[in-house]
Automatic annotation (TrEMBL):
GO terms for cellular component: bacterial nucleoid; cytosol. Belongs to the YbaB/EbfC family. Homodimer. The keyword Oxidoreductase does not apply. The lineage of its organism: Bacteria, Pseudomonadati, Pseudomonadota, Alphaproteobacteria, Rhodobacterales. Binds to DNA and alters its conformation. May be involved in regulation of gene expression, nucleoid organization and DNA protection. GO terms for molecular function: DNA binding. This is Nucleoid-associated protein RB2654_10179. InterPro entries: YbaB-like_sf, YbaB/EbfC. The keyword DNA-binding applies. Pfam families: YbaB_DNA_bd. It comes from the Bacteria.
Length: 119
């Protein structure tokens, strides 16, 4: 028997908390689809737009960087902008997760303790 689960009342509370967590996680997943972040490189010459889930949704490339002799530089700038967008997306996703854990009064950095449940 686990400590702290003294009786059915606590179990019901835990189940309710789990459901609330799942609802909030679902809402957060939907929000992450609508939140966008912009990564950039080359002082803004290349911009990559991504959802907070890390899905690339747009690229904005300044035509001045298209020099046939600089093909590798251009590719590096594009990759750097995409990576920057992915890092920002990951950070934003973590911030959203943190909001939920705070709202539910869970310890920070707990992640999703109910990831294996449901379905």
């Amino acid at each position: 028997m686990l400590k702290g689960l003294g009786g059915l009342g606590d179990m019901t509370k835990m189940m309710k908390a789990a459901q609330e967590m799942q609802t909030k996680m679902g809402e957060m997943q939907e929000r992450l689809d609508t939140i966008t972040v912009v990564g950039e490189s080359g002082a803004g010459l290349v911009k990559a737009t991504s959802t907070a889930k890390g899905e690339l949704v747009g690229l904005d490339i300044d035509p001045s960087i298209f020099d046939p002799n600089e093909k590798e530089v251009v590719e590096d700038l594009i990759l750097a902008a995409i990576k920057d967008a992915q890092v920002k997306a990951s950070e934003r996703s973590s911030q959203e997760m943190q909001k939920i854990t705070e709202e539910l009064g869970l310890p920070a950095g707990m992640g999703n303790p109910f990831g294996g449940m449901g379905g």
